[in-house]
Amino acid sequence: xxxxxxxxxxxxxxxxxxxxxxxxxVPVGNCVDCKDSACGDxxxxxxxxxxxxxxxxxxxxxxxxxxxxxxxxxxxxAWQQAVAVAYHPGGAGLTVVDLDNAAAIEWARKTLPPTRTxxxxxxxxxxxxxxxxxxxxxxxxxxxxxxxxxxxxLGPGTxxxxxxxxxxxxxxxxxxxxxRPAPHALPVPVPAGGGQCPHRTPAYLxxxxxxxxxxxxxxxxxxxxxVYRTFLAVLSTHGRCGCLTDAHVARLFAxxxxxxxxxxxxxxxxxxxxxxxxx
Length: 279
Prior knowledge:
Layout: H1 2-13, E1 18-22, E2 26-27, H2 67-70, H3 73-81, E3 84-87, E4 94-99, H4 102-111, E5 116-119, E6 124-129, E7 135-139, E8 142-145, E9 151-152, E10 162-163, H5 166-173, H6 202-217, H7 223-238, H8 246-258, H9 263-276
Parallel strand pairs: 6-10
Antiparallel strand pairs: 1-2, 1-3, 3-9, 4-6, 4-8, 5-6, 7-8
């Protein structure tokens, strides 16, 4: 814990907004006061610090360079559970091109200008000066992490940081943002009774969606499995009455992506759950 705090303070001193990551490379979950967006964070998720909570419970938006915050009691408790330090690239005016495999690295070497490079467990991070939208899976094995995202800090890397190339900005414009997806309309079967929802009140559906978001956000391990089981539960209860909307599904996808799931994984999990239920 001491080593992580010291590393975080060193990074903060050079302008990197940092935050702790728990096992599974996920941020600290919402505290009681902020759970289920009780703090009203969602309308303001456009810059770091969407609410006044003093703890590190808003992922990238909690990232800070303030040494007093980083060593405060709430953050100290979080560092005791942490396994790594992450940072908010956009908050430092940076973009991380996350290359997950050899093919992605080869593509980058042929397509992008050389820049500061950091080795990862599966590939490389190419770090550029400049910000853009954060989008996963812009190509096979390529994620873009900048605004409204976090990246694990894996060392200073080698090389000189180059300006963000137009090729990366173009890729992010071709994809939907990774943080808040807008799924296509879902072909959910409508029952023969004219589509009337058999549930008691609209609040029943809202409570179910909030419980599903909470279940995903509190997953400490086996995130893939938790997301699939949660999607399955939501569809089994609400998938045949016609009451689910794109907005509901977007909330579930957003909760899953906040835990590190990619848009593709969310789409696959949703499709697999529908298939399992014969929908």
